[in-house]
Design a protein that fits this description.
zinc-finger; Znf_SWIM; mainly alpha; metal-binding; two-stranded antiparallel ribbon; 45 helices; ZSWIM4-8_C
Length: about 1050
């Protein structure tokens, strides 16, 4: 063992300034001085590493330290010498700053005190003023690893005391001759000696840069505030860049690590907070997601600072005053929706959380840290929990048991603030105490879950009793809380389990007594700690909780749940953990309103599909029945349910009255994360579906659950594809008919969900259902619940009657005929449901099925009479019938279309003009009766002179009318006789009205066009026996009425006389 002198020197060098040693003892032997100086140098390479970069967990940010170590190991350190508390040396860097990247020598100097670097200098350009450059790292590592290779000397003041006057004069003159640049300074000091009133003569002694720190000097590692602020400012201004954002979060990790070792953690946190508030106006923080995450971390760290067990009253008061000033800053963001505050119960001498009574607008992200100022560490039961020697001081605490049934301590405080205590202990280096408190909190969570389960079971069995409310932390649960309580507990316990064999020698000065911990860092077995961490994480994630209204808080809830599940997946499950998993799953399924997997949950509670998916996969090899029960129960997403309490069946309504709900309030379901939740629901459904392959009853339950709970048609569509792949991926085997039927059922569900529209993938979905149906074979489908009439009469019918389908299904002629008849029946129904869109397609489908064709035709006629088909579609149908030689039916439909028509007086280019001409030819080919009927309708429906005259000329032309044999013949009719006489009179009247209408607002540029219109009118008038005289009277009337338009009348006279 080392001698007592060595041990004493190590302890004194780490805790006592050298000035105190000098003043306490008149004479200190030189060997003792050298030992103190030797052990005052930093001893741990991790401390050096911590001050080389913002973070050292990743290789990218650890490059400076690794380069420094490489230099130290490669013999790059030259002339190392330690004079008192000053270390200097030359570092030969082959990748230096010389020309052409030639090697350079860098002068490095370091001062230190009490195992901390107080300052460092290097003439390179790599240092940023905040952390060590690689040359400083190299010298420090070299000194730690090779202390005997470094020349060791006492402080220079001790050496000077041993010199005579002549030696001191010679030393001074040699220094001045070798360093002539300091001659002015030397002369200035010499002049001060000659002045009796100078400050040098008034002070005893002289400064010694190698003598270490004094009484008033801070005992901390060197950190330059100015450089730190500049660095933080640049990171904040560039926070939109991912690299800068990552460095900000690395800085948070650095602060957390520093808090365990020295006071620079709180100091760096202060600089960061002040600079963020100062730069607030320069950045649109509300649009920067980095801000929210950063403020969450800052708020938690300040809680840890406030709860530092080492803090005295004055230090704590200063911190709280600083937090109050920051909270009043307009740039300090408001607190999110996880709202609690802290009050102190003076009668019990302990603290607890209560629901926030003040408005959220009055609180900021730092309010929780201010609330933590009322928390104390002097509670008797808390001291008992943190002490390694436990004594039962009292059975109950505030109405709750202080100890569990097996005699282990509990801590009945709001879980988030209790976990904040755990984090504070851990952040300040009290690892053992943080584990003890974490275990007590985890044990309390477990006891509350079990007691809540028992209360629910008792109230559920005795329905006459009033519902008993279940104790809870708050409506929002623990996952996603800004203080991350479950993550703190899990991380504390698993870290303790991993590092359970490392000893700790920390001295604890928290309470009225002092404990020197020579025990192992964590005295509980690794398995027990892992079990408790695993259990508390399961209970926390499985807790029923309300979705916050704030969009960022919603995203954080899902992110935290994802992170916790990843932590659960990182654990290797042994038999003990499997049993815990089974017990917790059963507890959650039967746990009532406190559980997110219970039988009934609040409509606004957060779905926990990802957690259920984890439980399902982890427990599947051990309890298949339990996991399927849990998975099917977890498929729900109640926020999308449309069932109101008034619409519930009586039995369910009675059960609802007996159900004590965790969340007593609701708000409109404006969830910004609904897409992520639906994706997680799909993942769970896919897992259930693929696991249930081969089990008909389970598959039926899964399909029913999907149909009942999933509202995203795209995800159900994808599930159908998954089922189809599972059915057909069996190489060399016949397709699984059960899974094919599942795929068909899900495809049908998709079409039911989207039959009213709402997705651009509808066409793809219809095609997919037809694919599934043809893969299975002949099956009966109620088409109108799945397809629109247009889809049924086009895509579905066309695919069903295609030759490829018949070949794929190996249909014989009789089966083909039966299938075709069914398609025709569907076509008839489509025509009835949507004649406008489906009538023509239905006629096409039923071409070879006479009875069905006639039925569709009668549907068209009936629909035209009821005005369910517009005229353009009727004309199209009529042309189709005419092409098939059904002239009479074609005329009937065209006649109905004409009755639906309206052509105003000035619509010369009406789209139905050609249809009217064609209909007139068709009527003329059938006979005078049909033509007379049509003329009467045209006269009644058409007011346009041009259209009327065109129809009239069609009937009177020498080659006009379509003959019954399909050819055109000479059947021109006289316009002044029946049946064209009404048409001629209507045409002439229309021209007269149109001429007067045009002249009422005609302009000179339209005169030429008007003369052409008059010419066409004259041609129509001339079809009448007295048409010439009638047209002359019309012109005379125009000259009388419009005599002011002399230019126009001159044009008319010159053209028509």
């Amino acid at each position: 063992p080392p001698p007592l002198t060595e041990i004493a020197a190590k302890v004194a060098a780490a805790n006592i300034p050298y000035q105190l040693v000098e003043e306490r003892y008149n004479r200190v032997p030189e060997p003792v001085v050298l030992k103190l100086i030797t052990w005052s140098f930093p001893r741990c390479e991790a401390d050096i590493r911590r001050y080389t970069a913002l973070a050292y967990a990743t290789n990218e940010l650890d490059v400076t330290f690794r380069k420094g170590v490489t230099l130290a190991e490669s013999g790059a350190i030259r002339q190392p010498v330690q004079i008192g508390f000053h270390l200097s040396g030359i570092v030969h860097d082959k990748s230096g700053e010389g020309s052409n990247n030639s090697p350079c020598n860098f002068n490095v100097a370091v001062t230190f005190d009490r195992c901390k670097v107080a300052s460092s200098t290097c003439n390179c350009q790599f240092g940023d003023g905040i952390f060590f450059c690689r040359h400083v790292v190299a010298l420090l590592i070299y000194r730690i690893r090779n202390p005997r290779k470094v020349k060791l000397r006492a402080p220079i003041s001790d050496t000077l005391q041993k010199l005579t006057r002549d030696q001191l004069q010679k030393l001074t003159q040699y220094l001045l001759s070798r360093h002539a640049n300091v001659l002015p300074t030397a002369q200035e000091i010499a002049d001060c000696f000659s002045d009796a009133n100078s400050s040098i003569n008034a002070v005893h002694g002289a400064p010694d840069p190698t003598a270490g720190a004094g009484f008033q000097d801070e005992n901390r590692w060197n950190l330059d505030d100015r450089h730190v602020i500049d660095h933080i400012r640049q990171l904040i201004l560039d926070s939109a860049k991912q690299a800068s954002a990552n460095q900000l979060f690395n800085l948070i990790s650095k602060i957390r690590e520093m808090m365990k070792r020295d006071c620079n953690g709180a100091r760096l946190l202060t600089l960061l907070t002040e600079e963020i508030l100062r730069q607030g106006p320069n950045i649109q923080w509300q649009h920067n997601d980095v801000c929210g995450k950063l403020w969450d971390q800052i708020g938690l760290l300040w809680i840890c600072v406030v709860l530092n067990p080492r803090n005295d009253r004055d230090s704590k008061t200063k911190v709280l005053e600083l937090l109050k000033s920051w909270s009043k800053d307009p740039q300090c963001p408001p607190e999110d929706s996880f709202s609690e505050t802290i009050t102190t119960n003076t009668s019990r001498g302990r603290t607890c959380f209560h629901e926030l009574q003040l408005s959220l607008k009055c609180r900021t992200v730092l309010s929780r840290a201010l609330d933590a100022g009322s928390l104390r560490w002097d509670d008797a039961h808390l001291k008992l929990i943190l002490s390694p020697k436990r004594r039962k001081s009292g059975r109950f605490q505030g109405g709750f048991a202080n100890f569990s049934s097996d005699g282990k301590p509990l801590w009945h405080e709001s879980t988030p603030i209790a976990c904040a205590r755990v984090e504070a202990l851990r952040s300040h280096g009290y690892a053992n105490e943080s584990v003890r408190l974490a275990r007590a909190v985890a044990r309390t969570i477990r006891e509350n879950a079990i007691s809540g389960f028992k209360l629910y079971q008792n109230s559920h069995q005795n329905q006459k009793d009033a519902a008993v409310p279940v104790k809870r932390n708050n409506g929002y649960g623990l996952v996603g809380h800004p203080l991350n309580p479950i993550h703190i507990l899990f991380d504390t316990l698993t870290t303790a389990a991993t590092n359970g064999g490392k000893p700790s020698f920390k001295t604890l000065h928290i309470f009225h007594f002092t404990l020197v911990s020579w025990e192992l860092t964590f005295m509980y077995s690794q398995k027990l700690l892992r079990k408790e961490a695993f259990e508390v994480c399961l209970l926390g994630v499985g807790e029923q909780r309300c979705m916050p209204s704030n969009a960022r808080a919603q995203e954080k809830v899902l992110f935290c749940e994802k992170m916790l599940i990843e932590q659960l997946e990182s654990l290797t499950l042994d038999d003990e953990l499997i049993q815990v998993l089974r017990d917790v799953t059963t507890l959650l399924i039967e746990g009532g309103p406190g559980s997110g997997l219970g039988k009934r949950v609040h409509r606004e509670s957060v779905p926990i599909h990802s957690f259920a998916n984890y439980l399902f996969k982890a427990l599947l090899p051990y309890d298949r029945k339990l996991v399927f029960r849990m998975g099917l129960q977890a498929m729900r997403m109640t926020v999308l349910d449309d069932v109101a309490p008034a619409e519930m069946p009586p039995a369910e309504a009675a059960q609802e009255e007996q159900m004590p709900l965790v969340l007593p309030f609701t708000y409109p379901a404006t969830w910004s994360v609904i897409g992520d939740l639906e994706a997680r629901q799909y993942q769970l459904a896919s897992t259930l579906l693929q696991t249930a392959i081969g089990e008909v009853m389970l598959l039926r339950l899964v399909v029913e659950s999907v149909q009942r709970n999933m509202r995203n048609a795209s995800h159900v569509f994808q599930l159908s594809h998954d089922a189809f792949k599972c059915a057909t991926n069996q190489t060399g085997a016949v397709a699984d008919s059960t899974m094919l039927n599942v795929a068909l059922q899900l495809a049908m569900q998709v079409l039911r969900m989207t039959i009213q529209g709402g997705t651009w993938r509808r066409t793809e979905m219809v095609g997919w259902l037809v694919t599934c149906a043809t893969e299975i074979g002949l099956c009966a489908l109620t088409w109108y619940t799945l397809f629109t009439p247009v889809e049924a009469s086009t895509m579905v019918a066309g695919c069903v009657i295609s030759p490829n389908t018949a070949m794929r299904l190996n249909l014989d002629p009789r089966e083909r005929e039966e299938l075709y008849h069914n398609v025709c029946q569907m076509a008839m129904q489509c025509a009835v449901k949507d004649p406008q869109s489906c009538a023509l397609r239905s006629l096409t489908l039923c071409e070879t099925y006479t009875s069905a064709f006639d039925a569709v035709y009668h549907v068209i006629v009936d629909s035209s009479n009821k005005r369910r088909i517009d005229s353009s579609q009727l004309f199209t149908i009529a042309r189709y019938l005419d092409q098939r030689g059904l002239n009479s039916q074609a005329f009937t439909v065209a006649h109905a279309a004409t009755r639906r028509l309206r052509v105003p007086f000035n619509h010369d280019a009406h789209p139905a003009a050609n249809d009217l001409l064609w209909t007139t030819q068709l009527a003329q080919s059938l006979g005078m009766t049909e033509l007379e009927e049509l003329v009467l309708v045209i006269v009644n429906k058409v007011r346009c002179a041009s259209v009327l005259s065109d129809v009239l000329r069609t009937c009177t032309s020498s080659i006009s009318g379509r003959m019954p044999n399909g050819t055109y013949g000479n059947r021109g009719l006289r316009a002044d006789r029946v049946p064209l006489r009404p048409l001629l009179e209507a045409s002439m009247a229309a021209y007269v009205n149109t001429i007067h209408s045009k002249l009422s607002h005609i302009s000179p540029r339209h005169y030429t066009e008007f003369i052409g219109f008059l010419n066409k009118a004259r041609e129509t008038f001339l079809l009448a026996p007295d048409g010439h005289s009638q047209f002359g009277r019309l012109l005379a009337n125009l000259k009388t009425i419009y005599k002011g338009k002399k230019k126009l009348l001159n044009l008319v006279a010159s053209r028509f006389g």
